[in-house]
Amino acid sequence: MTLRRISIFAVICLCSLGLLISCAEKPDMSGKVAELTKENAALKAQLAKLTEESAKPTGTYKVGAIFSATGRTSFLGDPEKKTAEMLAEQINAAGGINGRKLELIVYDTEGDATKANLHLKRLITKDKVSVVIGPSLSGTSLAVLPVAEENETPLISCAASYKIVHNEKTGKPYKWVFKTPQTDTMAVEAIYTHLAKRDLNKIAIVSVTSGFGASGRGELIRLAPTYGMKIVADEKYGPKDTDMTAQLTKIKGLSPQAIVNWSVGPTQVTVLRNYRDLGMDSIPFYQSHGFGSRKNIELAAGAAEGVYCPLGACNIAEMLTPYDTQYNVAMQYMKNYKAKYNEPLSSFGGHAWDALQMVAQALASVGDDKAKIRDYLEDNIKGFVGQHGVFTYSPDDHNGLTKDAFTMVIVKDGDWSRSS
Amino acid sequence: MVNHHPHFLFYGSGMEKITLASQLLQYLITGLTVGSIYAMVAVGFNIIYNVTEIINFAQGEFVMLGGLIMVFFHVTLGLPLILAFPATILLVTLAGVLLDRLAIRPIRQPSVLTLIIATIAASILIKGAAMFIWGKDPYDLPAFSGRNPINVLGAVIQPQYFWVIGFLIIIVIALSIFFDRTIIGKAMSACADNADAASLVGIDVKRMILLSFALSAGIGAVAGITVTPISLMEYDRGVMLAVKGFGAAILGGLGSFPGAILGGLIIGSIESFGAGLISSGYKDAFALIVLMVVLFFKPSGIFGDIEISRIKRF
Amino acid sequence: MLRIGKLPITIFAVLIIIFPWIADHISAIDHYPDIMVFAGIYCLIAMGLSLLMGYAGQISIGHAAFYGIGAYVSAILTVRYGLNPWTGMLAGMVVAAVVALLVGAPSLKLKGHYLAMATLAFGIIVYIIFNEETEWTGGPDGMSGIPGLSIFGFGFDSVEKYYYLVWGIVFIVFIFTINVIQSGTGRALRAIHSSEPAASAMGVDISRFKVIVFVYSAMLASLAGSLYAHYLNFINPSTFDLFFSIKLLIMIALGGMHSIWGAVIGSGLITFLSYEWLHYFGEFEVIVYGAILLLVTIFLPHGLVGVPGIVKGWLRR
User: Fold this and answer.
1) Which of A6, B200, B305, C33 has the maximum number of C-beta atoms within 10 A of its C-beta?
2) What is the pLDDT of residue C1?
3) What per-residue confidence (pLDDT) applies to C283?
4) A258, closest residue in chain B (CA to CA)
């Protein structure tokens, strides 16, 4: 027998053994292999039990987090990650939750749906967390919610789309998924209410062709009749576009009474600059709640003056008074974040704050049983004072906010100012 | 208080009712401005292509670097425009030289596939480096001569637009003089026609290649510097600029400078009119569709020579 | 490279079969089978591209489009019309084939750079369509609720089951592709690649073969897209962007263009780099990809499969 034939024979044997081992459950195995297999299975079970026991958090409460901390949308995920880590540190420094430390395990999705999916599976099956906060984006949230549902793990998303907490087939929220950011519906309602008060109803909308923009545009169109709004122009631009003068020129020709722009990221600023460059700044301009960062005002180089935008409390902490419900939490968050990271807080970090704070409350109350945490969130989060609003969850509402979560703000002298 | 005539409140001084003609004029102005940028990118493509027959996929990154490095010199360091401008061009030219030296020259058996892949790799690296240095935020440059808009027949022109178009004209004139009247320029043209014959006559072909990359990079930088005050600049602008610039170059006829200019202006205008009159969501697609149509039906473009496009090695 | 030995294939098959069992017992890598599912999906696309680039010498910087077409056709037919996922998968391959024919026929007459740009433009246009046609594709929010795969009641509803499904398909395609390479078609392809005028002089219909390979690679990419959609149960346009097309290019360049094994190795390595080994770099993984691509192009033009050849060359001296 040549070496070649021996090696082929050996490979075939290995092959067969491999196949047999991987089909260990087949009952009609005979002889030695069956014995070995049984022993193997018993050992495996023992190993699994030990692993499970060591994974059971005798010492810590394990909370998972998936954010787009790097990548194109890091302006969302990075502050969220920083906020979550800061809050976890604070909680542990104050003695933890019922004496046990909070262990936050954070994974970076880079805004990629596939990575988000892999990370969530890993958090659940490998890291054995009891609850997960995040993801940062609507896209990644929609991508992972089947995993959360299948594995019966509560997930509190930090993303905007209402579809995250609305199962289109049943009309009700997904059982295990909650979210903290306000939906576009509320932002649009805040804007439309403001417009209606000022008797403006002939509006032009311009939006970015991303998830955020598409969602906002959808709501603007859907809610227009309710508030008596007539949409005379509906223009779009891409997230990487650098010039919207064509779209704005078309809008200019239709003489709207107000312009509503729905985007997040640099395009919000470019639209403003083009709007100013085209001499359109006598038309009232409304931004979405994605505009909430002083950096944007700066980059607009003066074009943001007089622009309106709906913002959550944490953005305008300094404008609040102690009579405002959210004053305390907002001010504290602002101070702590600035002190730890030496950069101004970002609106988006607040979503992570809200999520983790609720999780901490749930853990303190019911421990780390996944089903109990889920029930706690649904039944016991009532009037929870957060960064972006006062939350009340219920079986029909896993977002918990109303349009009062937004305050209409106007840019004056390069900074936010309350608009009547 | 009920407002019966909201129009009067919001149409204050200076804003006449805008007519279709003014709108079209506005689209044209925007189209020509943006088209000038595409033209500059296309010219850059042609310079390298003429000497080496390589399409430099990293061409757009030079534009991006021009904008961001200018921000560094002018805004971060506070140098006046007169100094920051040439300093930026110098640095970006250096980047072009590095591209040739590190990515193109080392390839031992150059073929179309490997060269395309090499320039793609270079563009990814440059983009990554820019992301590392400047982050993902957009950066702004102050307009060279202010932001007071000029009203022309109901359309609005920003002074910066004139700078963009103006520099395009300067570059065109400078390049014509360079290629027709100077010795180095003529040497480069010789390489373009026939590299072997050129080296027989004593022209250092490798040096000409280096020069072509340097020149392309410099022109790209000018484009970046002049456009940043209008539309800001961020680390990942390069790709779409390169694609559209290439569309302009192909439309005009690969290798032809007048073609590049015309191609750029046409593509910019098609984009602008398309976004305004047809669909703004598909704006980017217009330039790409033009590109594909040209490639399928007349790859030699407007000024290109069919014979040459067949004979060329690649 | 041309004569693919039976031994490597068998060893590879064994390794693939026992891998989940091994991974299950080593906690550090027990999530690897999940990543391997994606490696298998990408391997399918890579095999087709390798045939296109390595054997037919054509370049495509827009293959993410076909990947996306498969995914979206599967998603639309199963979610909006309730069709059987397998039917949807076949429909996807048919659509991809038709599109490839329409785009390929005129494009493949072009040379080098022109073809690269045509495929680049095509890829971006398809991406824009996915993003814009919200009625069909769900727009930027994507489509969710895509059903999983099952056959005669047996559902591929766990990581392990899907792993075996995907890799089973990979093997079938692998063997089929090798047979193609070693057949008359393969010889014609290699002739085209080494010298088009010579091949043409010998009677090879160049355009026809190039288009056939292009269509075949598009169908494989579409198949991969459908498998992806039914695994994640969710798709959105950002998965099918230009950068993914470039990543495919990197897989082929890294593995080696001129061998099917190159596709396997390249796709495997890049998948693990993407989803596991480059975690630390976060968004800066792109710099690693760029560096890999450049270094491979300069120093390893035949990719990793060419390494044994290089080593043999050294040893001979």
Assistant:
1) C33
2) 40
3) 86
4) B10
Helix B205-231 vs helix B20-52: crossing angle, to nearest 10 = 160
Instruction: Closest CB to C14: pick one of A11, A47, A108.
Output: A11
**Is B106's Cβ below 8 Å from some Cβ in C?**
yes
Distance of CA A11 to the CA centre of its chain: 50
Query: Which of A114, A145, A211 shows the shortest C-beta gap to C38?
Result: A114
Token digits of residue B216: 């392309």
Average of per-residue pLDDT across C192-219 = 80
Contact A176, A154 (CB under 8 A): yes
What are the distances in angstroms from CA A411 to CA A63, A73, A206, A326, C278? Answer: 38, 25, 20, 21, 42
Which residue of chain B comes nearest to A239, CA vs CA?
Answer: B281
Statement: residue B15 has pLDDT above 50: no
Interface mutation vs chain C, best among A142, A212, A221, most C CBs within 10 Å: A142
How far is Cα C100 from Cα C83, in angstroms, rounded to an integer? 24
Q: What residues of C are in contact with residue B107 (Cβ under 8 Å)?
A: 297-298, 301
Q: Would A7 be classed as within a structural domain?
A: no
Tens of pLDDT, residues B35-86: 999 999 999 999 998 888 888 999 999 999 999 999 999 999 999 999 999 9
Give the pLDDT of residue C27. 82
Determine the pLDDT at residue A177: 95
- The whole-model pTM stands at 0.87
pLDDT confidence band for A55 (50 / 70 / 90): low
Instruction: Write down all domains in chain B, each with its CATH number in brackets.
Output: 21-311 (1.10.3470)
Nearest to A22 among C13, C21, C233 (CB): C21
Q: What is the pLDDT of residue A59?
A: 82
Is the Cβ–Cβ distance between A179 and A164 less than 8 Å? yes
Q: Is B253 on the interface with C (CB under 8 A)?
A: no
Phi/psi at A370 (5° precision): -60, -45
CA distance, residue C52 to nearest chain B CA (Å): 12
| Residue A29 confidence (pLDDT) above 70 | no
- Its domain, for residue A155, covers 60-182+327-388
Q: Using CB atoms and an 8 Å cut-off, which of residues 18-47 of chain B contact chain A?
A: 18-20, 22-23, 26-27, 30, 34
Contact status, residue B283 vs residue B273, Cβ threshold 8 Å: no
Q: What pLDDT, on the 0 to 100 scale, is given for residue A46?
A: 63
Contact residues, chain B, for A235 at CB < 8 Å: 280
Determine phi and psi for B106, rounding to 5 degrees.
Answer: -65, -10
Q: In this predicted structure, what is the pLDDT of residue C111?
A: 73
Residues A253 and A206 in one domain: yes
Whether B137 contacts chain A with CB within 8 A? yes
- pLDDT above 50 (res A133): yes
Q: Are B40 and B219 in contact (CB under 8 A)?
A: yes
Considering CB atoms only, which of A236, A270, A301 is closest to B281? A236
- Chain C positions in Cβ-Cβ contact with residue A13 (cut-off 8 Å): none
* pLDDT value of position B313: 38
Q: What token pair was written down for A248?
A: 């704005």
Q: Which of A247, A255, A269 faces B138 most closely, judged by CB atoms?
A: A269
What is the least distance, in Å, from the CA of C307 to any CA of chain A?
24
Task: Flag whether A247 is in a domain.
Answer: yes
Q: Whose CA is closest to C80, among C128, C134, C41?
A: C134
pLDDT tens, residue by residue, B225-280: 999 998 889 998 899 999 999 999 999 998 888 899 999 999 999 999 998 888 88
Residues A411 and A272 in one domain: yes
Beta-carbon pairs below 8 A across chains B and C: 118
pLDDT average, residue stretch C66-90: 95
Structural domains counted in chain A: 2
Chain C contacts of B246, Cβ < 8 Å?
117
User: Where residue A245 sits, what CATH number does that domain have?
Assistant: 3.40.50.2300
